[in-house]
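Researcher: Please predict.
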Amino acid sequence: MANEPARRIGLPWYRREDYQRIREMMADRHNLAPTYESWLAAAENNETVGRKAGLHVSRILIEPEAFARWCAERNVEPDSAARRDYVAEKNSENVS
């Protein structure tokens, strides 16, 4: 058990300059923190908790244009499910 590699998880990550646009494009914007600062504090806390639990945590940047294109290609609404799937896909690409 002790020799198993750490489980990898991806965290959605946003740049300060993109955050307002990201919020505006999301169908579930009410689920995102109203300010970048409040989002960042929560995200950094989640990252710390994950690492303390022994997880390998990767920040997966969500850029507005790339995410919008990804959603359009898959015909999905930009929401929490799409963010989760996008992050999982990008995280697995980082592993390969």
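Model: The chain has a mean pLDDT of 93.
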